[in-house]
Amino acid sequence: MKRCFLILGLWLYGTAMSFGQDDLLAELSNAQKDIPIYTIATFKSTRLVSGHSIETIAAKHLDFRISHRFGAINSGFNELFGLDQSTIRLGLEYGVSDRLTVGLGRSSYEKVYDYYAKYKLLRQSSGSQNIPVTITGLIAAYTTTQATMPTRQYFNNLERQSYCAQLLVARKFGEKLSLQVSPTVLHRNKSETPIDANTLYSMGMGGRFKLSRRTSLNVEYYYTLPAFSKADLGQDAQFTNALSIGFDIETGGHVFQLHLSNSKGMTERALIGQTTGQWSMGDIFYGFNISRVFSFDKQKNQHQ
Amino acid sequence: MRIIIFMSLCLIGLLSKAQAQVYMTTTGLTQIFSETPMENISADNKVVSAALNTVTKEVAVRIQVIGFKFPNKLMEEHFNENYMETAKFPTSSFKGKIIDAIDFQKNGTYEVNIKGVLEIHGVKQEKTVKAKLQIGLGKIIIDAPFDVKLADFKVDVPKLVFEKIAEVISVKNHFILLPKIQ
């Protein structure tokens, strides 16, 4: 009898083995390692409002950006509340790889050319690999080509150059909220006024909150640090910190960014170094960015 | 006599164990196509795993949605962020059973129906898929094209882009399954 039980046991074991595999799906999830899910669309665009966001352009994609800033709303009826004046920046920004973007732009204010390179050092991801933040580094240079004039004299071409380095750190908290800090160093070979420091240290901060799948509310603030000591020259007191509030609308291939700001700046040089408006005085500038991304990725899918 | 009965039962048990073959792949290919007069969109996914149990005739497929690659990265972003909500629903799957008679011992090409549950975007739907099975050389090749109606899986496409994305997406699958090493 004992032997019978043994055999019965063996038989049960055998059938249990053959039915034990009935959950094939569970087996599949064991068999294949999950690939890391890199956080996408922390921000809708490569700019939060006027300053850079951590986003870069995908490989072989070109972003054509038109940025526009009107005059101050408090400039009165004769200026149609700022709509008569406008400054514009045209930009072409290309993704060399998914991490590296190079860009070229031209702003009408002071006829400034700007060039930048932006590299995604670390990507926020979840799944099999957990990285809490995305970090992007940016280096930029600016050249003003405006003719020298009594109010703004350039004695050589080197004086027309400015440089900027920025570290952008952002985290997407769930679907709706993304926050960013962006410590920035801006160096102008020629400062704006004789009592203005050449090198400015600024801390950018901002974020976006998604209102719907295709719209978001953005806020951006650049706080320029005061001089480290009394002996150092700080930023000329007439310049203010830029605070901007934006509204992004994303349609198929375009992103429209509408915003209100006390700054007309479309590059860090102007945003940090040349902002004079004050929200409390009604120096509010209406502006917008339009971004259109084109794909030059010729890789064809293999249709079977 | 009793012993013989038990012995034979035991043998059946062991035999069924020996036959319980699972064929599997972790490098399957799934492609999706959206065709409209405005624009044709397609994407490939190469991180698809599939398995077939030749005894129970069960089939399972698991797709990591983030693996779909589009020629246009913006589309890929929209696909993951707006339509599939990949962060919330990272995988799509199919679990079913071949409902037609099939002899896995015999090489050849078989047209079979697989009835099961398709899960996309967190929504489960009953689905019968027509599949072509090629058995031979120690492997099973499955080709199973089917259509997916976006509305069935609660994938919203806004009216603005409606004309660029088809209401029905065709899905093509190509899996080369090899015996799983136990």
TrEMBL record, chain A:
UniProt key word Flavoprotein: no
Q: Which UniProt keywords apply?
A: Signal
Please give the organism. Flectobacillus longus
List, for all copies, the residue spans of the domain called DUF5777: 43-294
Residues making up the signal peptide according to the UniProt record? 1-20
Q: Its domain of life? A: Bacteria
Q: What is this protein called?
A: DUF5777 family beta-barrel protein
Automatic annotation (TrEMBL), chain B:
- Signal peptide (UniProt feature, chain positions): 1-20
Alphabetical list of SUPFAM superfamilies matching this protein:
YceI-like
Query: Source organism's superkingdom?
Result: Bacteria
The Lipid/polyisoprenoid-binding YceI-like domain is annotated at 44-172
Database matches in Pfam families: YceI
* InterPro entries attached to this UniProt entry: Lipid/polyisoprenoid-bd_YceI (IPR007372), TTHA0802/YceI-like_sf (IPR036761)
Keywords for this protein: Signal
What PANTHER family does this protein's entry cite? PROTEIN YCEI (PTHR34406:SF1)
Q: What is this protein called?
A: YceI family protein
UniProt source species: Flectobacillus longus
